[in-house]
Amino acid sequence: MISTRRLYQESSDLILRYRSSLRPVWDRIDEIVAENQSKVLDAFIAERISLPHMSGSTGYGYGDMGREGLDRVFARAFGGEAALVRAHWASGTHVLCTALKSLLRAGDGLLSVTGTPYDTLRPVLERLVDERGVEYRETDALTLYQEGAIGLSELEERLDAAIGPKTRVAMLQRSRGYSLRKPISITCMKDFMGIMRRKWPHVIIMVDNCYCEFVEASEPPELGATLTVGSLIKNPGGGLAPTGAYIVGTKEAVERAAQELFAPGIGTEVGSNPHGYRDFYQGLFLAPKVVGEALKGAAFAAMYFSELGFAVTPGPFEERSDIVQAVTMGSPEALSVLARAIQSASPVDSFAAPEPWDMPGYGRQIIMAAGAFVQGASIELSCDAPFVPPYTAYLQGGLTKEHVILACLNAGKALADTL
Fold this sequence. Notes:
- This protein has helices at about 5-10, 10-45, 65-80, 90-105, 120-130, 140-145, 150-160, 185-200, 220-225, 250-260, 280-305, 330-345, 400-419, and strands at about 80-85, 110, 135-140, 165-175, 205-210, 225-230, 245-250, 310-315, 325-330, 365-370, 380-385, 390-395.
- With about 425 residues, it is α/β, with parallel strands linked by helices.
- The model has no long low-confidence stretch (mean pLDDT about 95).
């Protein structure tokens, strides 16, 4: 059994050195936290949220003020016309599926502008193609632009080549997923939206915002994205939301998504929650601070594992647009040691030993360390990876930066003792 307290004490000099080096990064994160916290607080105040909003409802949920207030707060905080925030969604993939099905009709075209999407979305896309005759295309144009490989004019040229007469929806995944590409920044999105609104104003823009909420000071709906989608057990749930997801966007698009989730003619008017909404409201309120803690922990992890000789992306001083820290371990043995060390430094199920397994929705084995209070909550510290070369681990989350630091120190010790 490890003693994280002893590990912390033995590493005090290293931690002080890292804190000194990372101070400019952490100060920059604090500025973003303050801006996002004020935005969220203003939303609560403007929507006159009160204690009765915390209460639950049953049955159909007609007139559920807690549900309706939460929708309005999310819409205002994210800069959209309307929002749909529901515990009925099981995951980010589930809400993305709802959004896509609500937007795409038979024979429509769907274009992914950030290349191949995250693993769990691929079966959804296959179903849309097979059963609805959706014409699906991919281009990595926006990813290449984000990485500086192409300029603005070439981005427009590549979009021009990819967008066809049937294209109804352009979908972008902001986070890196299981890849080493850079996540899509708000600045990059602004340039993209400028081109789309000038040349293809009829094309719907759908954004997978998972892992990216509150990392920067603006959100996609503020830029004019038609629908922005994310999971509540990631950033915007603040570590308290027990399940669910959100959609923010135009009133028309949000209403269509509600009809897809529930039924036409019912839409946003139903959806009860007998357990109440306190965790959802409080989680959103805490989310900017919690995301800031995760980002500070990620910067520490980048510096620490880089000094241990592992390739990391992003680097400790780079700008971030998601909470994910990639660490390429280089071997299955090193990846397993890392995952087990992160798990053993978790508050829940610390005694478990992660092994690669066939997770639902993935076409390859995944190893995952996730000792979280909310099962699968990626805003809590977790470490997961496809168990394939080059054996890159994806660290994300951390309710406190201190927990991330302790877990990294534990991993460093385990790697030194084992390999």
